[in-house]
Design a protein that fits this description.
This protein is α+β, with helices and mostly antiparallel strands and 117 residues long. The chain has helices spanning 17-23, 63-71, 96-106, and strands at 7-10, 33-35, 38-40, 45-46, 49-50, 55-57, 82-83, 87-89. It contains three helices and eight strands, in the order E-H-E-E-E-E-E-H-E-E-H. The strands form three sheets. It has a three-stranded antiparallel beta sheet, with no helix packed on it. Strands 3-6-7 form a three-stranded antiparallel beta sheet, with no helix packed on it.
């Protein structure tokens, strides 16, 4: 599960067929990095809707989704809630140990030999 402030990368920027016909192109961009601004779990309320899957808010507004929701009689506060499985958390790792290992492999403690001609 994600936490507010996590950096995530979008791995799915497509709609299923019913969504595509209702709202057009998805405003998310596959491969783009986003910051999680809100986390929702099944049962949470989002406007007049109930969340059924784990979801996140990443600051991407979908105006077409808001209009489609209004036409169905639903009220969404800002149309910025996406299924969490569209994203993967970015794993940040400390690489200092690896760099020290590489440095050790490239350095030598021996004195170079002088070869006579």
């Amino acid at each position: 599960m994600f936490s507010v402030g996590d950096e995530v990368v979008c791995v799915d920027d497509g709609w299923d067929e019913s969504e595509a016909s209702a709202v057009g192109k998805c405003p998310l961009e596959k491969g783009r990095i986003y910051t999680v601004e809100g986390v929702y779990v099944p049962g949470d309320r989002f406007g007049s809707c109930i969340v059924f899957d784990q979801a996140v808010s990443v600051g991407v507004h979908c105006e077409a989704m808001r209009i489609a929701a209004e036409e169905c009689g639903s009220i969404l506060p800002h149309c910025d809630i996406w299924r969490a499985n569209r994203f993967r958390r970015i794993q940040k790792r400390d690489i200092s140990e690896g760099l020290a290992l590489l440095k050790g492999l490239t350095e030598t403690t021996r004195t170079p030999e002088v070869v006579g001609a």
